[in-house]
Amino acid sequence: MKKNIRDYDLNNKRVIIRCDFNVPMKDGHITDDNRIVTSIPTIKYAIDNNAKVILFSHLGRVKEESDLAKNNLEPVARRLSELLGKEVKFINKTRGEELENAVKNMNDGDVLLVQNTRYEDLDGKKESGNDPELAKYWASLGDLFINDAFGTLHRAHASNSGIASNLPSGIGFLVEKELTELSRLDNPERPFVLILGGSKVSDKIGVIENLVTKADYILIGGGMANTFLKAKGYNLGKSVIDEESLDFAKKMIDTYSEKIILPDDVNAFKDFNNDAENRYADITDLAMYEMGLDIGPKTVAKFSNIIKDAKVVFWNGPLGVYEFNKCTEGSRQILEALVNSDAKTILGGGDIVAAAGELGYKEKVTHASTGGGATLEYMEGKVLPGLACIPEKE
Fold it and tell me: What is the tens place of the pLDDT at every residue in 277-333?
């Protein structure tokens, strides 16, 4: 068990908290503040325990000067001030005298947000390259480091593993909750069902290889299913196929035929367009000019029948092109089946969490992970650099 924020005396300490404020923005306005909201418990705990709170986060990618303005964290500071009910001082610098003086003048309970850590990527990728000099400098601003940015744990950056290597460190409440929920999958109750969607098989090979022996069933939809279906010899018309993963798909089908459950029908479109002509078609009945963009009602019924007896379900990737309103029904009905079952359901970050939010199911499942890549790499059994550097409890 990793050390967490409760394991340290925060009184009168400068506590650096790495948050994930990588929120969607449009014209300088935050369009979804969920990642800010989920950071509040850890920040409030530090405030309530008389810490001087110094917040770090990245926002977007910074490759050239034009990226600076659109990835400015100042709107996050304003929203944080509203949520905390107190001023969050924003420092429009990532290093230098202004930042150092602001930290020096902090009182217990004060909160300060440092400008986007990826501003440091403009000059040789110092943040994302985990520059040791930058990590040591940032660490010099604090007495203690708390990592509460689950979505970045799979990256070794200066603002997470870099600072942690220079200071006493622990995890925050968000990371603790993520790890607790995902640990259900280490030795899951049975039946354990894995649902995989999204477009490419290659993105999920590690997850499949790591969990195929644990799972009782793997339900596959989305673009991924096309590759598995083609590996079984079906004609998929114009559907997108991950050609490089066909051999892997065939091997999995041959080895685990009783576990891997594929669609019987799809919502078939003539073109990749929400307004294109479409129909429900059996997978044996796709025309050469059609493409499957969502699972069909027969598949929904088959998947739902397996889900009703499940004890634990992990789901990564939508079962259709959920950006098209004609292609949300498959994912919606499976979400409905899950919330009406007794299964503990974990949504594995990224697009499926976004889809569940838009469809009104995100708050109804057991856990919706804030990580995308971090969740997948955890499920693959990989070491997460941002977590590995945090010491274990004694």
Answer: 999 999 999 999 999 999 999 999 999 999 999 999 999 999 999 889 999 999 999
* pTM beyond cutoff 0.85: yes
Cβ atoms within 10 Å of 67's Cβ, excluding its own: 18
Residues 148 and 17: their CA atoms lie apart, in Å, by 7
What is the number of structural domains in the chain?
2
Predicted confidence (pLDDT) per residue in 28-38, tens digit: 889 888 899 99
Q: 263 and 223 in one domain?
A: yes
Going 253 to 255 to 258 to 260, the CA torsion angle's sign is: negative
Left if phi > 0, otherwise alpha if psi is -120 to 50, otherwise beta: which for 289? alpha
**Same structural domain for residues 205 and 67?**
no
Is residue 291 within 8 Å of 240, Cβ to Cβ?
yes
Output the domain CATH number for residue 289.
Answer: 3.40.50.1260
DSSP 169-212: EEE-HHHHHHHHHHGGGTS--SSEEEEE-SS-SGGGHHHHHHHT
Q: Quick one: the chain helix, strand, coil %, rounded to 5?
A: 40, 20, 40
Using DSSP's 3-state secondary structure scheme, residue 264 falls into coil
Q: What CA–CA distance (Å, rounded) separates 191 from 184?
A: 13
SS3 197: coil
Closest CA to 58 of 171, 174, 167, 152: 152
Q: So which residues are the catalytic ones?
A: 35, 200, 350, 373
State the residue range of the domain holding 68. 5-174
- 198, 190 Cβ separation under 8 angstroms: no
Mind listing the pLDDT tens digit for each residue in 166-190? 999 999 999 999 999 998 888 899 9
